[in-house]
Amino acid sequence: MWAQLTKMRLKTEKEQDISGLFKQHLEEIQAYEQPDSGLLRTMAMQDQNDPSQFYVLIVFESEEKARAREQDPRRQEGQKSAQAGWAEIIDGPVEFVDLSVVQDVSA
User: Fold this and answer.
1) How far is CA 46 from CA 34, 41, 50, 101, in A?
2) Which of 33, 70, 75, 107 is the most exposed, fewest CB within 10 Å of its CB?
3) Taking the C-alpha atoms of 63, 19, 50 and 97 in order, what is their torsion angle to the nearest 10 degrees?
């Protein structure tokens, strides 16, 4: 497995409705997601001590599948729309951290 953590700062006026905004954008992304993308899980998290700080953890079967998904032409049009939506709520640059999953334990 492979994961990517995205860290972003939300515009102050968007902090209160982050759950609804994320749900809307996630539905847009799911609409153009391909069944063979290797995507396993997406988690959205908000910092309890700094509500403007927001994280998204995306887990894939492998890094190869994730990188192929990034280049998949079937996603290109939907991706443009989603990026425009995110641009409305994000303040500043987005940070990406690539992670090798060492262990995954579910309760």
Assistant:
1) 27, 17, 8, 21
2) 107
3) 10
**Phi then psi for 76, rounded to 5 degrees?**
-55, -50
| HSE, side-chain direction, 13 A CA sphere, residue 55 | 11
pLDDT at 74: 79
pTM of this structure: 0.81
Buried b (16+ CB within 10 A) or exposed e, 69-92: beeeeebeeeeeebeeebeebbee
- The pLDDT averaged over each successive group of 10 residues in the chain (107 residues) is 94 66 70 82 89 91 93 78 76 93 88
Residue listed under structure tokens 């998904």: 69
Q: Could you give all domains of the chain from N- to C-terminal order, each with its CATH number?
A: 2-100 (3.30.70.100)
Pick the closest to residue 3 from 36, 31, 33, 41 (CA basis): 41
